[in-house]
Amino acid sequence: MTRVSHKTHALYLSAALMLTPLTLTPLSATSTAAAAQAVLPNQIAGVSYASNLIQGATFTDTAGHWAEESLFMAGVHGLIVADSQGKANPDALFSKRDALLGIARLAGWMPELQTPGKRPLTGDTWTVWGRRIIDIAQAKGLLGNPARPLTGTWDDPVTREELALWTVKGLQLPPVKEGVVNTYTYTDWNLLNADSVPYIETALREGLINGRMEKGQMVFLPKQPVTRAEGAFVLVNGLKKALPAQNRLIIPVSVNDIDDTDPAPGGVRTRRIHLVGPGGEKTALAINGSTAASPWGEGIAVWKEGAKDGYALAPGDQGELYTLPALNGQISSAYLLKVLPGSRTFEGNLMNHDPQTGQIVILDPWGRLQRGQLSPGAHIWISGEERKMADIPGGTYLHVEAAGDRITTITADLPVADPGAIPNESKIRQGRLSSVEANGVRIIDEQGRDVYYPYAPGVVVRQGQEYATLDDLTIGDPVSLRLSDYRGSAIAVIEIPVRNRKVEAVYRGTITHINPVTQWITLREVSKFVGGTWTSEAGQMQSRIGQAGAVSINGQPVAKEAFLRYGKGRKVIFSASDGFDGKTITRMALLNGTMETFNDRVSKLDVPGGSLRLDIDGNYLSIDNSTIILRNGRLVDPKQLQKGDPILAFADATRNGYRAALITVDKDHMQTTEVGDGLVQGSIRSMDKNGKIVLQLYSRYRDNSWTRFSGADGVYSIKPTYNTVVYDFRGATSSRIPISDFLSQGPSGQFDDTYLYAFVQNGSVLAIALQADGPSTEQPPQDRTTLARIKSINSTDHSVVLEQVRDWSDASRRWLPNSTTPTVSLNGAVVIDKRDLIDSSDLRVNDTCLFIRDSQSGRARFIFRQ
């Protein structure tokens, strides 16, 4: 290797960043072709000017800056240059001429700009080549005729519109002229030049530039000047489009292993970094220590949470290998390895795997889609054995480790290490449950259709990574149905999220802006329906009308297109679900009159005729498909209403009568499937050796109320199992009685006349709570039923403070609001979450719960977390 001084290396580097790079393999100009052929070369070696490369791209004023990484990447690729003091001046404004110079280097125009005998290794590049850059930019279509910027002069700051427009044109990315969506999302899109819109759309789709959120609105700010840090961010985002077109590959790599070679006396210390490429190909990157010929050694530039050298790499690092240009064959190609951000873990069900691209889509327990790309050399573990990704069937629950969006390790637990019974090519259907039937389910799908799907033999229900049962399904649940085969319609697996099963929220507000292309609307004066009351939301809000969104005016459905054209300025009420890209409206109606509230019961229901009659008030409310109906927090359809339902209705009062805009139903909060399921309380009359318990003076809990006590002659039987948990609350401190002791001691009469509460589920007793005494009356028990949200938790005295309280009235059989914030003791409470017993310490602030509590002391007896 030619020996070159440290100073000369810096000059070589400056010039190298302006010259045509050497190629690794012949590639087409498209990034797709480049990506398809992006493979590691057989040999990679460090270069003697790596330290200059790192030093030259590490500016003296960028440490800790939000754009430190982008500024380093821009510096190492020559997209921006330092001033005489080595500063990048990241917060200074980016001039139009510096922007054009950066685009020229990004797009590989520098050979066209160079004039024989004039290479500005020192001095002002613009002074030497400024006119030439403008001429070439004009010839390539960046500028009009005459060649001038959109605003101001070449010394003025470049605007966001100009930088995005010129970058897209410089990279020769095709403008999007049809189906412009992203640009119209921004409320100030009309400030763009009309001719710029297709190019701005391309810039947004390719991730070159982003919009901003200001005062609750998404804005693009096309005329705002760009700082040098923001300019570096945009130009660096263009590297993945620019470099493959210049045959300079960006190769995904994984650091598999590292070994050091101890030098012989007088020898050179060598480190070999073993890399794995996207196709599983392997190569070693050699970096050497200091020698007389290379006093700074031979290495590579590394970005790993800061500018580093090759010695910062460690096994397991995931990154991107950039090939930097060489200097006319005098110096070999240099490399930059950018290590992706720190590791993250997530888990969920495998929804899709594309073996061609390595893209993986996973549905996590919160119902969100997580996407990632399988990294080179990723480890796939199935039941403790390392296997291939192709061996994991669709629908399998996975534990994933990733660096950035690069998946490094996947762990799957299967009954066997071979593909399961769910075919990889099986179809997936998503929607909301509208009914659960004996042989199948009905869902309202993403197009708003009510569709029936039968069960396949051995249908499986999964809630996150846990197996569930059909009894765990609730009307209104968001579900994913995995069908048993590609052509069939039978359900092999039903998947429900662990959390956020109540995905709907209800809002009302005034529309201030409508984008007819993206179907996004902006609202002000927004209120959210929470716990039976309306609470104001700060600022403005944006939502999108979904495919299944129903829009109603005066109870009559209207075309969404007509609403999008004329809806601005109207007051609306709507339900919305949280999606991956914001809130999506599912039902919406215009409010034309005043909103009136009815806390009542349904005495008569006529779904085909579109009306219901209130029991206490006596008025009729009209209902239709755009009426928002929440049953136990889940969005349902009018046909899911039932006679006798306690409802809280908000109706639009007009001269034509009352139209129900929102109806909430809170009923059957305890999950029961059999006639004998639910809460029961009573006194133990006897227990036999088979474990059967006969209760006398008993009462059962039905429809938010306790029945009258049975009287002396009435008896009721329950039978605990060895899974039943027995709580003893008869003493000063609570305890548990082993079920074996309870069943063995009971027949001897030890528990006779003991008062108990029990919860029966699926015909089996889940929990028994023994009490010190019980009421002696034939009237219904005086326990209070309360539906409320936990405001705070006091772990010292084991109590909670409630808010948004509603108490059940046995007299009027409806929920009555309670403006107080009562404190409820948890001592002696049995807590049930869905179908599982949990400890009271598992309760959290903001949990909504059904409390069965003592009317005198307020102490909770049973708590059902919703």
From TrEMBL:
Superkingdom, taxonomy of origin: Bacteria
Signal peptide positions on this chain: 1-28
InterPro entries (alphabetical): SLH_dom (IPR001119)
SLH domain mapped to chain residues: 183-249
Keywords: Repeat, Signal
Protein name per the record: SLH domain-containing protein
Species in which this protein is naturally found: Heliobacterium modesticaldum (strain ATCC 51547 / Ice1)
Origin organism lineage: Bacteria, Bacillati, Bacillota, Clostridia, Eubacteriales
